[in-house]
Design goal:
By secondary structure, the protein is α/β, with parallel strands linked by helices. The protein has helices at residues 5-14, 38-43, 46-52, 73-89, 102-108, 140-149, 174-185, 206-214, 230-238, 298-301, 304-314, 332-340, 343-349, 400-409, 452-457, and strands at residues 24-27, 31-34, 60-63, 93-95, 117-120, 134-137, 152-155, 158-165, 193-199, 223-225, 258-263, 270-272, 280-282, 293-297, 324-328, 352-354, 375-378, 394-397. It contains 15 helices and 18 strands. Strands 4-3-2-5-6 form a 5-stranded parallel beta sheet, with helices on both faces. A 5-stranded parallel beta sheet has the order 16-15-14-17-18. β12 (270-272) and β13 form a beta hairpin. α11 (304-314) crosses α13. The longest helix has 17 residues, at 73-89. The chain is globular, with a radius of gyration of 26 Å.
Amino acid sequence: MGATFAQKVLAQRSGNRSVEPGQIVTVSPDHLLMHDNAAPIVSKVNADLDKFGLASREVPVIVLDHVIPAANEKTATSHKKIREFVAKFGVKHFYEMGEGICHEVVISKGLALPGSLVVGSDSHTCTYGAAGSFATGIDRTEAAAILLTGKTWLKVPQSIKIEVTGRLKPPASAKDLILTIIGDIGADGANYLAVEFHGNIGALTMEDRITIANMGVEMGAKIAVFPVDDLTKAYLQRAGAAKGWKAVWADQDASYVKTLRYDLGKIVPVVAKPHAVDNVAPARDLKGIPINEFLIGTCTNGRLGDLRAAAAILKGKRVAAGSRLIVLPASRDVMIAATKDGTITTLVEAGAMVLPPGCGPCLGAHQGVLAPGEKCLSTANRNFKGRMGCADAEIYLASPATVAASAIAGRIVEPRGVTRPAAKAKPKAKAKPRPKAKPRASSKAKPKKAGAKKARRR
């Protein structure tokens, strides 16, 4: 019997010829991700760090992104402690506030390589499976131990195989695909399982794969991973990733606890209703629900393609009166690219407020917190009760296209043939009769200027 992706990676990283599901292995991660929570993690082992030092200055990756700029003195003090830790121990991979959301930074900077093992003190570390990495979230105590020892333990997971065929038909998107899968499997349907994506993977862009892998944890998955292909290689090359990596993938005869199949051509725009990500329904069945706040961005859908998809719908239109639209680019690089190509201008002209690259409203820390009774339609990955700072608010999840189209209407709509209601046309003035043409003085006609006929037709 062949081995799954998870079995192969964990066997290699633990020094075993092979491993079986359920087996406990000790491994040395290539990287440990931390963000603003690095301060409380470090505080757990401050004394030991002073005594024994940091296991590796290459392993930690710290990104300030959750509450940036600092919203209060407590947060500012926490950020200060992180900077001091970085300077004291010479942490190589440190990204200041404004660089972007941690998951976008790690994968776009080429820090998650195919076949690598990356752990993070954030549940959405599974995002890096888009690049063929075994990437998973761990708790803060485990993270603190890795700072000291460079090692941790993992249980080898069983695996689910998801096969995709066909191609997505716009406006359906990768977000609609992953929400559909989560709706089918359930929020706990892949608990501590590795989810492998197979089939016509070439039909999904790298941005699509990042969105899908990011939400693997929303069905309980330990990891969500894609095979490495030419798109992956090109993405890593642009990211400046280190060379010498070796891709890992499952054997054809690997064993799975479940196999699911999806025809991408049958995916339709969907929405996850409050207060669970698996509470999914077609967008057309929810049309008319009024929305107060619209959010486009986050580590799930804050990349350039996402912002462009929203701008294409919002171009020349306006956010509905009484509603507000917040745009949250996933990184500084995304912000720059979207500024250069006019995407940001289009969104701002439509009435959007653009926030600095970070997490902000997604977790309800600051910027975009909801009020009691309000509803938000968001491209983020979670809609739990109280997620955006208010337990008496409601969060709906959807794709950038659905959020943008709905922002124009001020209510949930399906993003198909979206147009803004036309303003009442002013009565046309009566056309004045054309004066009769005067006879030419000469029978010889003057040559017409080139392009004159075309100009009159425009």
